[in-house]
Design a protein that fits this description.
Four copies of one chain form a homotetramer.
Chain A (H helix, E strand, L loop, with lengths): L1 E7 L13 H18 L4 H6 L3 E11 L8 E9 L6 E9 L5 E12 L5 E2 L11
Chain lengths: 130, 130, 130, 130
Amino acid sequence: MSFSLSLKVRDYECDMQGIVNNAIYQHYLEHAPHEYLLSHGLSFAEMTREGIVIVLVRAELDYRKSLQAGDEFQVTVKAARPTPVRLVFEQSILHEQDAPTILEARIICTAVNAVGSPYFPEQLADLIDG
Amino acid sequence: MSFSLSLKVRDYECDMQGIVNNAIYQHYLEHAPHEYLLSHGLSFAEMTREGIVIVLVRAELDYRKSLQAGDEFQVTVKAARPTPVRLVFEQSILHEQDAPTILEARIICTAVNAVGSPYFPEQLADLIDG
Amino acid sequence: MSFSLSLKVRDYECDMQGIVNNAIYQHYLEHAPHEYLLSHGLSFAEMTREGIVIVLVRAELDYRKSLQAGDEFQVTVKAARPTPVRLVFEQSILHEQDAPTILEARIICTAVNAVGSPYFPEQLADLIDG
Amino acid sequence: MSFSLSLKVRDYECDMQGIVNNAIYQHYLEHAPHEYLLSHGLSFAEMTREGIVIVLVRAELDYRKSLQAGDEFQVTVKAARPTPVRLVFEQSILHEQDAPTILEARIICTAVNAVGSPYFPEQLADLIDG
């Protein structure tokens, strides 16, 4: 299964180089999976309030090109479960106009329980390809 | 003339209180006027590259209610020119669902030239009510 | 009583104009009072966990000059209680080198209880001049 | 050669989970190398104004533990030049108190010239171990 979110660069996301600041991409890469969850009826905020703590384990980001003020772009998300307790979001950021890849990322998460042990919240099983 | 922009809270904009962080509203209040400019064919980024430096002189923000994760909202913008060199954006943030006012703001700007004197860039005259 | 915090601009806080983005000042104006609280043994994070919800009611910010990459500056904070339920932080941002005022702000807060009524948390009384 | 920067979590950097938001670490990992440059008399802002465009090529971040409100921490930076045109910052974020590793990162950069070709700005050679 895959998911795609359309966004547009906001001027305040650009830094003194006049392009989107590198850290801002991680905001995009957090927002898109949360919207993906919502499209499956799952709210990250609600899960947080219920004590389900999903944490980032590793992020790999390959920056190919820069986004500039006003650029429209898409964040595509694919979810996978490479190990029993890991949830991986394979993501790409694509420029909407002519579709060169801006960034490719691999975001590896897990959930941790009250004693700090990793587990896979069963609510998230729906996100994974059948 | 007035302008309205529809946005949605992103989870990363919320702080430890579980609501949108106070500073983030100023991002919304910067983004909406920039989109307003674009709707008149004016790009803030392009003006910046051309050396037109628009600066904030004073911001007054009245916080009425909080936005939460996932809330959809509208930012409305009205522009005025109360003095020859000042551009004012009267803005409201409204919750889309049932429309209580979230925030009201008055954003007072000017442009400064190379020697630091304030002026009104004539390109912006179109934003003002006739 | 007054309090002063020394900070330094970080490059990622600057936007495409090459100066600190306007919204970032509100981060500084939030951080300095939280450090002021800590200097009185009060943790905003702890109060949040205990259910004490301090909210911003109104912010007035007068922008005088811009901060640039690498600038060192001071945020000064004075607390007042102009009405029984309001806590006001009068703040200035001063450039450390030669001390022209960068920004002056008046940050008006209150706490809200479980039914949304404003009150003044008695822990904060120590912040106010005797 | 290595470099270390002491920082403290600011409350606005924490998100609804009550811990530092994942993207904020990339701000820390940008700020520390910029301070490292400054300790060698090199200003990222000045290089940007002079047209030297340093870009991020790849970021690998291993998140081990979370930082919380008020935590003091250190960012350590080591620079390397694994290929002629690449500058790599090996970075760790360590909790100051008792020193468990919070995060380990590998930040791979290059500079790009006016036609988009990568190169190594000779000013940066000093950062590399002899």
